[in-house]
């Protein structure tokens, strides 16, 4: 088979990855996408020195580059189904070089008196080609012991609120939300955070206000029970999440907002989810209704009782109206027989929630308890 290499300003370590001159298969298409993404990230890094340090312009650009690297790592993880181990090792090495370049650029443009970026001693570069680091073993991360930030990502030692490794003095929004309150509705500002991480909550209604619009560099919701969470405002007024992880959630209503990249959903039961994303992967979930706008086929694995519906009109923007929605083109990776998988179905029109739920209850209807709101959306499912 005749192969050729693609010339680009970026060179992979070792041999370049060949591609066929005929119609590209998914692996080849991803290779081209990866090269394009690398070129965009490198262009963004080259502009950092020209940006103003005063006013936060440069730091915002650094945060954006970090988010793009994390997004690319997630895309490599999602491509594990159709990329050989050798290719994944090449992608992993390429990302490592980008991270090293970013560290060097940051060290050059950032005054040492304010910032000192270093590679975290707790994280190591992950070989995506190794079987023990198969991303499918831990959805949303790059290895069994990986972090959502990705392997060997630059870590700021300046005080900040982040998901994952919080600085010792960082504000703990989860502790703040868990405190006793007269109202069941919590509106954590996330005003000093860069990422949104909500975990370990029970029986509360969480609404993220517009002050959290700048904190969407990454997002995760974990270990929630009997909760209502609405993240639609920050991702509509600010930037969408580059990626989002939902894990270990039960009997809850989650309005996840907009996500430009992949959403990984693991261990969710008896819940209702509202999601706008480019890609959705669902693992080990049961009895979940998903109102969805998805740019690719949703993927389920080891799931049962999944019901899908299109995104409610309340959350549809011009961007969604202009793009294809593949919400009902679900692929079940554990159903290899002919015919429709019994693990998912389309939610009928009569079973879909009415507009009043999204416009009145989810934004926090005065006097409505968490239990009343969950009951109105059919949680638990009868």
Automatic annotation (TrEMBL):
Residue ranges annotated for the C-CAP/cofactor C-like domain, each copy included: 209-335
Annotated stretches, region: Disordered: 113-175
Cellular component GO terms held in the UniProt record: cytoplasm
Pfam families: TBCC (PF07986), TBCC_N (PF16752)
Gene3D superfamilies linked: 2.160.20.70, Tubulin Binding Cofactor C, N-terminal domain (1.20.58.1250)
Assigned keywords, A-Z: Acetylation, Chaperone, Cytoplasm
GO biological process terms held by the UniProt record: post-chaperonin tubulin folding pathway; tubulin complex assembly
Protein localization: Cytoplasm
MF GO annotations: tubulin binding
Subunit structure: Supercomplex made of cofactors A to E. Cofactors A and D function by capturing and stabilizing tubulin in a quasi-native conformation. Cofactor E binds to the cofactor D-tubulin complex; interaction with cofactor C then causes the release of tubulin polypeptides that are committed to the native state.
Similarity annotation: Belongs to the TBCC family.
The protein's name in its UniProt record: C-CAP/cofactor C-like domain-containing protein
Species whose genome carries this gene: Stachybotrys chlorohalonatus (strain IBT 40285)
Organism lineage string: Eukaryota, Fungi, Dikarya, Ascomycota, Pezizomycotina
